[in-house]
Amino acid sequence: MLKRENRGVTTKGNFMFRSSTRSEAESLLSGLALGFSADPFMRWLYPEPADFLTHFPRVMDFFGGRAFEQGSAFRNDDFTAGALWLPPSIHPDEELLVACFEQTVSSEKHDALFETFGQMDNYHPDEDCWHLAFIAVDPIRQGKGLGSALLECCLKRCDEDGRPAYLESTNPTNLSLYKRYGFQEMGLIKADQAPPLFPMFRAAQ
Question: Cβ atoms within 10 A of the Cβ of 20, count?
Answer without folding.
Answer: 25
